[in-house]
Amino acid sequence: MTIQQTNDERRTRRQFLQTAATGLGLLALSRQALAAQTIELPLPGGTDSRRLTTAFPGKGQMILQRTRPPLLETPWSVYDKGVFTPVDEFYVRWHWADIPTTMNPHTHKVRISGHVDKTLEFTVFDLMKNFKHVELAAVNQCSGNSRGYFQPRVPGGEWSNGAMGNARWVGVRLKDVLDAAGVKPGAVQVQFEGSERPVVPTAPNLKKSLSVDHARDGEVMIAWEMNGQALPLLNGFPFRLVVPGWYATYWTKMLQHIRVLDHEDTNFWMHPAYTIPDNWPQANMTPGEKDVKFVPINRMVPRSFVTNLANGAKVGAERPELVRGIAFGGDTGVKSVDISLDGGKTWTPTQLGRDYGKYSFRQWSTHVKLPKGEQTLLVRCTNSDGLQQPMTPNWNPGGFMRNVVESTQLIAV
Amino acid sequence: MTQFRNRKMQHHRLPGMALCVVALTLIPMGSASALTLKTQTIELPTSTRVFPGDSAGAKAANTYCLMCHSAGMVMNQPDLPKATWLVEVNKMKNAFKAPIPDDQVSVIADYLDSIKGKK
Fold it and tell me: What value of ipTM does the predicted structure carry?
């Protein structure tokens, strides 16, 4: 009983801190006021007005992309606060509307079955007790992050750049869990399925697969903690898959089934859904191009952004002005982040912030001295493999893997 | 269970530990995390938004599209060519199994083109 009270108090305190952190002292009042607020995303051709919402449990103020099933985008200002994305502002993306609204960590189990020596089931507490705990900082980014900037525009979740987040994930290695079940020789892929279900029962449930070698690489995790907190239900409580360096479509939420397959997974969600033109890292084609080979989306590519100055911001002319932002290398670390003020002819390195690991956001900063007038600031990440962000945007019909060099218009006065 | 809670409580006396761990790669952690996991129950907000108008297309869209997703998903889309809307409606019917009758597919696609068509 004493422990119970302590837990409740702790949770209440955490809620208070979250509330205070977002500056919403008068929660009830502010919620109503905020409900009516809208934000303009500068998506080419529109529709770019979105409501801001605080109506989703466990979530602070988010950009409402879709109510059901929820698509909630992280407001851009959040990324300037630090290298880790606050849990209550971490973006949310669900495929099907039948989402369990009650999750009991004592009864929800993940089942490992298929091409294994023995079928096993674990609650989150079983995982905690039976396997070594690991922690990893990693970016979780939607395959379609920034889809709204594709031209010509493509259908789908019309995100700005806020369908990504960075967290310290704590959990267990998938490898250890698979080894406990005993992967049989001849295994090809490992398939993951969560607890969400389609409203129409005959619709294909969301299932994603990784190669056996990838699943056993010792980096893929089953995580129950992000940034020191339990996963909010909307981010996959009680646990989700963490696939460092890979797009979030593989980071199965509310993980329920792990099936070791002795064949390649050909289900709808591996192909044709979530596929890219077979020319990684470009994922590029011409609109209308025929006979393009598509393959399942996979490793992420480098990106970098300015976070402290918005497009059209006024800065002082002829004096050092601070510019800072975040970058990530994709499937490996950040080697450098450079800026250009002459359209990409010359590049100047920035100072990189603390390194939290190769899969994490990395902050960068520098000072620029701008002549009077309108200036264009370009920012470009080069990752540890030497891969650089391209100067021209890619295009594909899914709106996947955008990573063009971002440009910010500044007015020096 | 009691034993588990005790382990967590012990770990909790060393709050600095977790913070010291800067993950360059996967970092093994010595003991259970300090986290308390309890049943989460939430209520998801609903949307009352419907497709505008009272045409046959609006009615069909309200009947079949809103079964699986709120109207905002469509209303937030850019203007798209009519052929793209037809592909989308067919995808909903064939891949996602929306029970759209054959004769309503073009009715819905025409309607979407009328409100969100790329001219």
Answer: 0.87
